[in-house]
Amino acid sequence: MIKVRNLKFKYPKNKEYTINGIDFEIEDGEVFGFLGPSASGKTTTQKILIKLLKNFEGEIEYYGKPLASYGDDFYQDIGVSFEMPISFSKLTAMENLEFFKRLYQRTVDVEPLLKRLGLWEDRDKKAGEYSKGMKIRLNFIRALINNPKMLFLDEPTNGLDPANARIMKDMIREFKEQGGTVFLTSHIMSDVDELCDRVAFIADGKLREINSPRNLKIKYGRRMVKVEYREGGRLITREFSMEEIKTQAFFDLLKEKDIETIHSGETTLEEIFIKVTGVALRE
Amino acid sequence: MSRLIPLVKGEFDRLNKYNLFTANFVVLLLWVGLAWFFEGEELKMFLPAVFLLDATMMTMLMVAATLFYEKQEHTLNSIMVSPVSEDEYLLSKIIVNIINSLISVFFISAAVYFIKDVTYDYLKLVPAVIVVTVVHTLFGIRLSYYAKNFTSMLVNFIVYVFLFLFPSLFALLDIIGPEMARFLIILPPEASRILITTIVQEVEPWKLLFGYGYLLSLSFIFYRFIVKPKFNDFLMRETGV
Ligand SMILES: Nc1ncnc2c1ncn2[C@@H]1O[C@H](COP(=O)(O)OP(=O)(O)OP(=O)(O)O)[C@@H](O)[C@H]1O
Ligand SMILES: [Mg+2]
Questions:
Q1: Atom of ligand 1 minimally distant from the CA of A13
Q2: pLDDT per position as a tens digit, A56-110
Q3: Closest Cα to atom 7, ligand 1: which residue?
Q4: Residue A279 — very low, low, confident or very high, per pLDDT cuts 50/70/90?
Q5: Model pLDDT for residues A20-36, shown as the tens digit of each residue
Q6: Is A226 helix (H, G, I), strand (E, B) or coil?
Q7: Range of the domain at A192
Q8: A50 and B81: CB-CB below 8 Å?
Q9: I want to staple B184 with a disulfide (CB 3.0 to 4.6 A). Which of B96, B190, B191, B195 is the partner?
Q10: Between the CA of residue B66 and those of A69, A82, A132, B105, B154, what are the distances in Å?
């Protein structure tokens, strides 16, 4: 549904391109993860895709037509959650949502959303008096208010406790199951691993990889099995290639030794992130 | 354009919640309190100054304050990723300020009528106040665009006041002579003053015609070539979001 060709973008004040020629496609109904180190241009890319930043080079097509050819009705179909809290601080959560609701043709009942994300009790509290996590949950509800076909989520679970992050991830998955498409940026690799059908890694303005998490793990992982066992009180580690595990030696080891752990050589997205972008995660 | 109504209503809710309404009302009470001390001809000279200050300075301050809040809380971005167009958004600011100015007109006129039994040509006042408010809403938006923060917005505002408004006030209070005053009409506040003064004194028709034509053209040019084209830059300024 979205096709990006040789996208380049430079902020007017800057000399260098923040986005320096990237290509990707987002399929209908997929969750597309956009990953990269801090300041690599994730938020910038999202702002370009939602038509806030206009002076880009290259082509972006949304359902086969140039993004620029869409008018303001483009926004009837998309939901956006920004990386920072956005609400009128002196209005209650409910007043905030009511205001934004009136701007759309098609809207949803916010009660179940507020209840599910644990904000129903506090719906009449001023948004300015919300905690950080509460504001982020409110942002997410704001993004869903027009029953969008596509969601753009900039680090949606950043700053949430595990229980609420779980709920939000479930909601994102359900959104996808009902046919929705998601563009998601995140630093939290477990979320990405769980939610995304495909991920793209951006670093230094270029895309380093686009693939499914599974394929990336195979590509960057080592096809081997690591076995740890005790022998004479000492811990011994041995590695077997995928060919070696078919041999008798491997079975004998399993049968005869006191095995403590068996690990596959599959790598984590964290390690892939560091390898691909050349930058260590901060957290 | 169906989104204009929720935008205008939302803005009024917020003026209320952010206490900007109260601030405006306190200023109105102050004017009425001052009006108390004037009588007859003096009062008739004082009232246009009040309407002028309200439609120019208050308008600019109010629009700048709302833009400041929306920028600071990033709600402007949230509005702009809804189907609201830039035109609708900007138009809603203009409409809200027109309504605010008319509320002031109504409140002050009612107050001086009941307290002092003073009336004047309301039919001349209303269109003048509307046109003056429109052009100053646009000035206020333009001042906000170029301000880095609230303080620098206030500084810009004060510069505007000194450059433009004070000569008009001097003319109003007969401090500079009529020879000089004639040319002041190309200053927007002076053109504004002339339009509003018609409620208490005769103004040559060419001045009226020129005043309306000038302020309306200025509004159009400002909107079309400055306020609208620079809106996206303003929206995108500052990092984050
Ligand atoms: N309004 C702006 N003007 C100038 N430069 C900007 C602006 N916004 C962002 N940048 C620069 O563009 C680069 C990319 O920023 P962006 O916000 O897209 O990063 P990000 O990948 O989202 O980072 P994070 O993970 O920290 O949110 C940074 O170097 C930033 O300084
Ligand atoms: Mg970001």
A1: 4
A2: 999 999 999 999 999 999 999 999 999 999 999 999 999 999 999 999 999 999 9
A3: B239
A4: low
A5: 999 999 999 999 999 99
A6: strand
A7: 2-217
A8: yes
A9: B190
A10: 31, 21, 24, 21, 13
Question: Nearest Cβ partner of A75 from B14, B83, B236?
Answer: B83
Judge: B77–A52 Cβ closer than 8 Å, yes or no: yes
**Residues belonging to chain A:** 283
Q: Please indicate if any CB of chain A lies within 8 Å of the CB of B240.
A: yes
Note whether A181 and A46 are same-domain residues.
yes
Given a cut of 90, whether residue A224 has pLDDT beyond it is no
Residue reference for tokens 């401090």:
B175
Nearest-Cα distance to chain B for A258, in Å, is 55
> Does the residue A280 lie in any domain?
no
Mean pLDDT by 10 residues, chain B (241 residues): 91 94 92 88 88 92 92 93 96 97 95 91 95 97 85 83 73 74 81 90 90 96 96 77 35
Tell me which residues of chain A have a C-beta less than 8 Å from any C-beta of chain B: 12, 43, 47, 50, 52-54, 71-73, 75-76, 78, 80, 82-91, 95, 99-100, 102-105, 142, 146
The reply to whether residue A84 touches residue B75, judged by beta carbons under 8 angstroms, is no
- A51 and A175 housed in the same domain: yes
* Total domains in the fold of chain B: 1
Closest chain B residue to A104 measured between Cα atoms? Answer: B83
Taking the CA of A39 as reference, the closest ligand is 1
| Termini Cα distance of chain A | 33
What's the domain range around B226?
4-239
pTM: 0.90
Interchain contact B237–A (C-beta under 8 A): no
The helix/strand/coil state of B81 is coil
Q: What is the Cα–Cα distance from B241 to B236, expressed in whole angstroms?
A: 9
Residue A283 is assigned to a structural domain of this protein: no
At residue B85, φ and ψ (nearest 5 deg) are -90, 165
pLDDT for position B39? 85
Identity of residue B3? R
- Strands (E) in chain B, as ranges, are none
- Within a domain: residue A134? yes
Across the interface, whether the CB atoms of A99 and B10 are under 8 A apart is answered yes
Q: Are residues A124 and A245 in the same domain?
A: no
